[in-house]
Specification:
Blueprint: E1 2-5, H1 14-24, E2 27-30, E3 48-51, H2 58-66, E4 71-74, H3 84-90, E5 93-95, H4 102-116, H5 119-127, E6 145-149, H6 153-163, E7 168-172, E8 185-186, H7 189-195, E9 198-201, H8 215-219, E10 225-229, H9 238-247, E11 250-255, H10 277-284, E12 288-290, H11 299-317
Length: 327
C-alpha cells in the first residue's frame, strides 16, 4: 500500500513514520510542505494522502480527486480545515486521528492554574526583578466552580484531573457520559454561565457551535470569569472576548487556540508582520496567556497521530470499519 505524506516533519514525525510504515508494510511518498495546487501533483499515483492542519478547500479537493486520491487523513483530532462538503461532492473519504487525551488535559490544567494564579504577570515582573505583591494575588482551584464544555475523551480527562483539586464541576455536552457523573454534574449552558468561576472548552468546531462564547454568552457569565480554550479558536468570538477582558467581565483567559490561526502556527514568523491584530491585542493583556496551539504536543501524541493516520488508511483500503472515519 502507498500513502503520500504532506507536512512531513523530520524533527519529530520521521522516526514514527519510519517505524510504523515498516511495521505495516506501507510505502511512503514524502513532502515537507503543506499541500497546495502547485504541489498536489506529487500525490499522483497515491490513493491515500495524510496531512496536518492545512486548508483543503474545494479547489484543492477537486485537484486531488482528478489525481485519483480516494482518501485524506488528517493527523489531527480537529478537521475543520478540511472542506467536508467538497469531500462528499468528489467522493473522497476523510478521517482524523485520536491521541492520548492526557496531553491536552495536562496543558488545560496548566493554563487554568496559570490564569488563576496570575502567572504571566508574576513571570514578567520576575524578569525585571520586581518582586512586589500588589496585583498578583491569585485564587485557589478548590474554591472555584468549573464548567467543562464538551465531555469527550479530553473533557473526561480534564474532569478526572480536576476532581483531584476538590473543586465543584459542572459539565455540558449533547450526549451525557455515565463516567463523567462520578465527578461532575451535567447542566445546561445557562447554569454553567451563571454558576462557574472558570469555563474550559473541549468541543470540536461545528456549524452549530461557532462562536459559542460570544458577547451574549459572556454577558451571562459571572463577573471575573476565567475562560480557557484548548479546543478550537472558532468556539470563541475573539472580539467579544477582548471586549469582555477590557470591561473586566472576563478576569483572565488561557488560550492555546485562536480564530484564523491557519498558516501562522508551526512556522518561524518572528521577522514577519502578521495581519493578526486580535492576536497582538490578546497578547498585550497582563491577564491573558496565549500559546501557539501546543497543547497536543508530546512524544506520545505525535506517535499516536502518525500511527492512527496510517492505520486509518489501511482500514479503508481493506474495507474494514474505521473508528476515525469522518466521511
Amino acid at each position: 500500500m502507498k500513502i503520500f505524506v504532506y507536512n512531513y516533519r523530520k524533527f519529530d514525525e520521521a522516526e514514527y513514520f519510519q517505524k510504523f510504515s515498516e511495521e505495516y508494510g506501507v510505502e511512503l511518498g514524502i513532502c515537507t510542505d503543506e499541500p497546495t495546487l502547485e504541489n498536489a501533483h506529487l500525490a499522483e499515483g497515491y490513493e491515500y494522502v495524510t496531512i496536518i492542519t492545512s486548508k483543503i478547500d474545494r479547489e484543492l479537493m477537486k485537484k486531488f480527486h482528478e489525481l485519483g486520491v480516494r482518501m485524506i487523513s488528517t493527523r489531527t483530532v480537529g478537521y475543520d480545515h478540511v472542506d467536508i462538503a467538497a469531500a462528499k461532492e468528489f467522493g473522497i473519504h476523510v478521517s482524523n486521528v485520536s491521541y492520548s487525551p492526557e496531553c491536552v488535559a495536562d496543558y488545560t490544567v496548566m493554563l487554568m492554574l496559570m490564569s488563576i494564579r496570575k502567572m504571566k504577570r508574576i513571570m514578567q515582573r520576575g524578569a525585571l526583578n520586581d518582586f512586589s505583591l500588589p496585583g498578583i494575588q491569585g485564587k485557589e482551584l478548590p474554591n472555584l466552580t468549573v464548567g467543562v464544555l464538551g465531555t469527550g475523551r479530553i473533557g473526561q480527562a480534564v474532569i478526572r484531573d480536576l476532581s483531584g483539586f476538590r473543586c465543584k464541576i459542572y459539565a455540558y455536552d449533547k450526549y451525557e457520559n455515565k463516567a463523567v457523573k462520578e465527578h461532575a454534574q451535567y447542566a445546561d449552558l445557562d447554569t454553567i454561565y451563571k454558576e462557574c468561576d472558570l469555563i474550559t472548552l473541549h468541543m470540536p468546531l461545528l456549524e452549530d457551535n461557532f462562536h459559542l462564547i460570544g458577547k451574549e454568552a459572556i454577558s451571562r457569565m459571572k463577573e471575573g470569569v476565567v475562560i480557557v480554550n484548548t479546543a478550537r479558536g472558532g468556539l470563541i468570538d475573539t472580539k467579544a472576548l477582548i471586549g469582555g477582558i477590557e470591561s473586566g467581565k472576563v478576569g483572565a483567559a488561557g488560550l492555546d487556540v485562536i480564530e484564523d490561526e491557519f498558516g501562522m502556527y508551526y512556522h518561524d514568523r518572528k521577522s514577519d508582520v502578521l495581519s493578526k491584530r486580535d492576536l497582538y491585542i490578546l497578547r498585550g493583556f497582563p491577564n491573558v496567556v496565549v500559546t501557539p496551539h501546543m497543547a497536543f504536543y508530546t512524544d506520545q501524541a505525535v506517535s499516536d497521530m502518525v500511527k492512527h493516520s496510517i492505520e486509518s488508511c489501511l482500514l479503508r483500503a481493506e474495507g474494514k470499519e474505521d473508528p476515525w472515519e469522518v466521511v
